[in-house]
Amino acid sequence: MSDHFFDDTFEAFLFDMDGTILNSIAAAERVWGAWFGKFGLDPDIYLPTIHGRRASETIASLGLPHVDAEAEASAITRAEIAEVEGVVPVPGAPLFLNSLPPRKWAVVTSAPLVLARTRLEAAGLPAPTILVTAEDVQRGKPAPDCFILAAERLAVNPARCLAFEDAEAGIAAAVSAGCTVMVVTETHKHDFEGAHKQIANYQHVRPEILRGGLGLTRI
Question: How far apart are CA 116 and CA 60, in angstroms?
């Protein structure tokens, strides 16, 4: 028995990376926790601010005096590239992604390109044909630029895309781009509140080709 999440179909699926198709929280929080400690900031307070945004924008938002946000972000990225222990796929994500036509999906992440590729490989996920990263846009999430660019590279209208997200900044970016949003709650510590449809992970959903487009079915 199965049922469809949406009455309509989509031309493409757009996936955030961290927290949405893979779980890198343990690795990221080890690196960022050490960085916050270096500047005398309580990791318990500031770690929630790192998710869904570019590192440079997270650092700049702290307003730390005499801190070069770009230089610090580069150092954090290098540390994160070296720290892949505990980077794992969100349950069901490998099969789900491998079931999609290559030109019908993209990864849209706030991570830099090298880090994105490193984490996708560490999690055993397929390399997307279209990968939009931090270097590809001037404005990161919650600005819509990254999702608009991914849709453009797939030659589809953002309004005909389903965006899978887990963080507030990413959800806001996808909504601003005109996408429909599916929230993935696997890595949420608390219940997610919002009007968007939700899945815990990909173990009980599958993509389907329906009426020339992509559908999402519960199994």
Answer: 21
**Mind listing the pLDDT tens digit for each residue in 64-104?**
998 999 999 999 999 999 999 999 999 999 999 999 999 99
Are 13 and 51 found together in one domain? no
Q: Is 16 found in the same domain as 111? A: yes
Both 18 and 119 in one domain: the answer is yes
d(CA 156, CA 178): 12
103 and 195 inside one domain: yes
Q: Specify the pLDDT at position 191.
A: 67
Active-site residue 18, yes or no?
A: yes
Annotated catalytic residue within 7, 8, 16, 42: 16
Q: Is 191 a catalytic site residue? A: no
The CA–CA distances, whole Å, from 143 to 77, 89, 138, 177 equal: 21, 26, 9, 8
Q: Half-sphere exposure of 155 toward its Cβ, with a 13 Å CA cutoff?
A: 2
